[in-house]
UniProtKB/TrEMBL annotation, chains A, B:
Organism, scientific name: Streptomyces murinus
Entry protein name: AcrR family transcriptional regulator
PROSITE patterns assigned: HTH_TETR_2
Species lineage: Bacteria, Bacillati, Actinomycetota, Actinomycetes, Kitasatosporales
Domain HTH tetR-type: from-to ranges: 15-75
PANTHER family, per the entry: HTH-TYPE TRANSCRIPTIONAL REGULATOR RUTR, TETR-FAMILY TRANSCRIPTIONAL REGULATOR
Pfam families: TetR_C_11, TetR_N
Gene3D superfamilies: Homeodomain-like, Tetracycline Repressor, domain 2
InterPro entries named among the record's database cross-references: Homeodomain-like_sf (IPR009057), HTH-type_TetR-like_transc_reg (IPR050109), HTH_TetR (IPR001647), Tet_transcr_reg_TetR-rel_C_sf (IPR036271), TetR_C (IPR011075)
Record keywords: DNA-binding, Transcription, Transcription regulation
Length: 197, 197
């Protein structure tokens, strides 16, 4: 199903109802995890029919990834402070530490589930990772256009590895969620110097 | 059990027998994964008694982590090429792409299992991560002593985040193992510039 057809089908429900439904999906995810989450449970919790859920989202992986994407408060594409440092700091400031801790726990669970669910891995990559990469490239392109970053700087190709490194290493190895203070220090110490800023 | 007591108890078996046992543990890990691996299966595969395994390793988490640590061919502490760039490239060259792909799949499975096994997470952190951090710090300290890296360079504190970022992002998001070529480019593009080299 194409994105346009899916959007048209989803448009039968109001944005308020859609937000309520995504909220219920994230609540269930936090309660039982991806593997134990069933479309039956989502249908019961949201007083929907399973047929409606399948018609509008296709399946569990798609519904969960759309709910995750919807939960992001701000939008990276709205950030444009005039400097790369300002843009990256604004990116970190979009979510306060409490929200970041919640999302970190959720993403950790999703990362585990991706290990043995190929459909989830594909949906997550297509709808979240690839979208973030596109947005990140636009941010970097503005920095190149302003003359802050050289167009041939080799670190440009590793932007996502650098960012995920800070976020995931903290979550996986240090067993604590990333904080705004940690990510801001990491950006200043690693990401900007690697980009020659 | 202290490390010294454990070593004394392990010393009752020969190094060859120990290597054989660790090899069997890694084979089983690859076949069934951490959660389904049992001490019974290890005992059967290695013709040991479970009592011996428990007496010598304490439990599954400790046995698996020691087997992982033992599987590393070279030793980072033996690397000393005279430059930080040379040392980091030598680190990458310790494992060829085939071994790296095998270890990456194994580590991915272990990372997933760590999510819900606190004893595995603790054993992995204590015996692998912390040891790598100590070795990495020694490598960096030599670079500081040679005047390659400033002692107050803020990226020093993020060395493990940078390295794990390259390795894990590739494994988790790009669904392919890291290669020597990839990691060497990453070190040249991100790690060394961030450290001001």
């Amino acid at each position: 199903m194409t994105e346009a057809v899916a959007a048209a089908r989803r448009s039968r429900i109001t944005p308020e109802r859609e937000a309520e439904l995504y909220g219920a999906v994230l609540d269930l995810l936090r309660e039982v995890g991806y593997d134990a989450l069933t479309m039956d449970a989502v249908a019961a919790r949201t007083r929907s029919s399973k047929a409606t859920l399948y018609r509008q989202w296709g399946g569990k992986a798609d519904l969960v990834v759309k709910a995750l994407r919807h939960s992001k408060r701000g939008h990276i594409e709205e950030i444009d402070t005039g400097t790369l440092r300002g843009d990256l700091h604004a990116l970190v400031a979009m979510e306060d530490d409490c929200v970041m801790a919640q999302n970190s726990a959720l993403l950790r669970g999703i990362a585990m589930a991706m290990h043995h669910n190929e459909d989830l891995r594909e949906a997550f990559k297509e709808q979240i990772v690839d979208a973030e990469i596109v947005n990140g490239r636009q941010m970097l392109q503005r920095a190149v256009d302003r003359g802050e970053v050289r167009a041939d700087c080799p670190a440009i190709d590793f932007m996502v590895h650098m960012m995920v490194g800070g976020f995931a290493t903290r979550t996986l190895l240090e067993d604590q969620p990333p904080t705004q203070a940690f990510l801001t220090s990491y950006i200043d110490a690693v990401v900007l110097p690697a980009l020659g800023v």
